[in-house]
Specification:
The chain folds into two domains: 81 residues; 50 residues. Helix content is 81%, strand content 0%. α1 packs antiparallel against α2.
């Protein structure tokens, strides 16, 4: 079991380095694909060259996604073998443990905080609306005054 854990750890570490390189390659080919699309649409590139670039782009993206899936699978396997949360419960908001529940007091406190934020946002919107209405009236008066002067 220790050997399996060590092997997975080394594999994940090496795959992360490769993933970085694949990510850079995928980004480069996506950039090249975007530039070549413009060239193709402007008539500066033939369809065969454009298709070749898109083929490499999709190949790099697929390689990146495949390796990312492999790394995630290996990490989850490592979690199972070591009984240690690596992805689940510690670095994401996903909670698999259903025994964690909030008390009524905690829920009420959170609801009150949300209500307070909403009330504050409504008040700010009302202030902005009043200020806009005031500015509109002022602009209308100025326009009417300017129109009177022109007559």
């Amino acid at each position: 079991m220790k050997l399996q854990i060590a092997t997975l750890y080394v594999k994940i570490t090496n795959d992360l380095v490769t993933l970085k390189t694949l990510g850079e390659a995928a980004a480069a080919y996506q950039g090249a694909g975007a530039l070549n699309r413009e060239d193709f649409e402007n008539g500066n590139m033939n369809i065969e060259d454009f298709a070749y670039t898109k083929l490499h782009e999709s190949s790099q993206v697929a390689s990146y996604q495949g390796l990312q899936t492999s790394i995630t699978t290996d990490i989850l396997t490592l979690e199972i073998l070591t009984h240690t949360p690596i992805i689940t419960n510690s670095t994401t908001e996903i909670t698999l443990d259903k025994s964690i529940q909030k008390s009524d007091k905690e829920i009420a406190k959170e609801n009150k905080a949300v209500e307070k934020r909403i009330k504050k946002a409504v008040e700010e919107d009302e202030k902005k609306t009043k200020a806009l209405e005031k500015a509109e009236k002022k602009a209308e008066k100025a326009a009417a005054k300017a129109a009177k002067k022109q007559k």
